[in-house]
Amino acid sequence: MFAPQGPTLRELAVQALSSVEHGYDLLAPKFDLTPFRTPEVILASVAGVLDGLGPFGRGLDLCCGTGAGLGVLGKVCRDGVTGVDISAGMLAVAARAHPEATLLRADARALPLSDGFDLAVSFGAFGHFLPKERPNLFARTYAALRPGGRFAFPVVAPFRPGSPGHLALLGFDTAMRVRNALWRPPFVMYYRGFRLSDVRQELATVGFGVELYALEELGRRRDGSPRARLVVATKQGRGLARTDEAPPSTEEGSPN
């Protein structure tokens, strides 16, 4: 599961008992050696879809971590890329990997940017936000985009109830809730609260038009539906969400 040079069990335990910010500061030097980094197949598939929708001007990686998404933006954006993250440690690693990028330490829930970007992306970060925080997060992202700008992020189809994947996520979320009930500061990381039907409505309420694109490199399930989709939300006037394909199941699924 981890590379030999990856974090030890003790290091992971210390991170898990820290705040989100400090925990990632501690994990940052070894983060890319863990399975928590967004897999290359997802990054490449997202880049392929965005390449067909672009080109774009300025790009923003929201909760950029060590910079996996900055590489995607660099392929489709012509006028520079910016990464935002709350962890100084993660940004330090991103700076070494992407010296061409502008990096900003900030909380995405109080994003200090407006009307400057043509494309925003985010990979694997939404589990760090409680459902009640998402409308504000989406509103902040909307404000950071120029008219017609797009906000894109991948969503993996939910596991079937009772499947090993579903039980693993249920166990993880339960353990996190117990941890946060007994220990302070909290470490928010919940995988099962990111329902695509809810997210589409929240994006539409902010003023985004929403489209879904299958990430074909991730394959399809037995019923023919994609294993993963790219949500592409376009900044426009307020109205109902649009989609070019039927939505997936509204069962709880992972944001990663």
General description of the model:
It comes from Streptomyces violascens. This is Methyltransferase. Pfam families: Methyltransf_25 (PF13649). InterPro entries: Methyltransf_25 (IPR041698), SAM-dependent_MTases_sf (IPR029063). By secondary structure, this protein is α/β, with parallel strands linked by helices. It has a single domain, classed as Rossmann fold. Helices cover 35% and strands 18% of the residues. The chain is built from eight helices and seven strands; from the N terminus they run αααβαβαββαβααββ. α4 links the parallel β1 and β2. α1 packs antiparallel against α2, α3 runs parallel beside α4 and α6 packs across α8.
Can I get a quick summary?
The chain has helices at residues 9-16, 20-27, 40-53, 68-76, 88-97, 134-144, 164-182, 196-206; strands at 59-62, 81-85, 102-105, 117-121, 145-156, 208-214, 228-235. With 256 residues, it is of the alpha/beta class.
What topology does this entry show?
Layout: H1 9-16, H2 20-27, H3 40-53, E1 59-62, H4 68-76, E2 81-85, H5 88-97, E3 102-105, E4 117-121, H6 134-144, E5 145-156, H7 164-182, H8 196-206, E6 208-214, E7 228-235
Parallel strand pairs: 1-2, 1-4, 2-3, 4-5
Antiparallel strand pairs: 5-7, 6-7
